[in-house]
């Protein structure tokens, strides 16, 4: 099952299958890709320079800490690749 961060409640809640089926098309439209063989989604973000990439990663890190959920991510100069397992954030 996937989970989602509920900004009103401030916590992670499990998605129902109906919610998942509703949200996944929106995630695909936002260029998130389902990872074959894993219950995960993936997206690569490209930035103008290192400072923009690092700033983005810092903001995500602060939000992830609040959620007690930490994505698997990789960065290289001006890009950031994020793999989120068992989570959909919208």
TrEMBL record:
It is found in: Cytoplasm; Nucleus. Coiled coil: none annotated. Its EC number is 4.2.1.96. GO terms for molecular function: 4-alpha-hydroxytetrahydrobiopterin dehydratase activity. Pfam families: Pterin_4a. GO terms for cellular component: cytoplasm; nucleus. It comes from the Eukaryota. GO terms for biological process: tetrahydrobiopterin biosynthetic process. The keyword Cytoplasm applies. PANTHER family: PTERIN-4-ALPHA-CARBINOLAMINE DEHYDRATASE. This is Pterin-4-alpha-carbinolamine dehydratase. InterPro entries: PCD_sf, Pterin_deHydtase. It is an enzyme of class 4 (lyase). Belongs to the pterin-4-alpha-carbinolamine dehydratase family. Involved in tetrahydrobiopterin biosynthesis. Seems to both prevent the formation of 7-pterins and accelerate the formation of quinonoid-BH2. Coactivator for HNF1A-dependent transcription. Regulates the dimerization of homeodomain protein HNF1A and enhances its transcriptional activity. Also acts as a coactivator for HNF1B-dependent transcription. It catalyses: (4aS,6R)-4a-hydroxy-L-erythro-5,6,7,8-tetrahydrobiopterin = (6R)-L-erythro-6,7-dihydrobiopterin + H2O. Keywords: Acetylation, Activator, Cytoplasm, Lyase, Nucleus, Tetrahydrobiopterin biosynthesis, Transcription, Transcription regulation.
């Amino acid at each position: 099952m996937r989970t989602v961060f509920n900004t009103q409640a401030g916590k992670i809640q499990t998605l129902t299958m109906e919610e998942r089926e509703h949200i996944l098309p929106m995630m695909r439209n936002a260029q998130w890709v389902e990872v074959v063989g894993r219950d995960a989604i993936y997206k690569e973000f490209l930035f103008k320079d290192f400072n923009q990439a690092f700033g983005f990663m810092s903001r995500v890190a602060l939000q992830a800490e609040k959620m007690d959920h930490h994505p698997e991510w990789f960065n290289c100069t001006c890009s950031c690749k994020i793999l989120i397992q068992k989570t959909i954030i919208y």
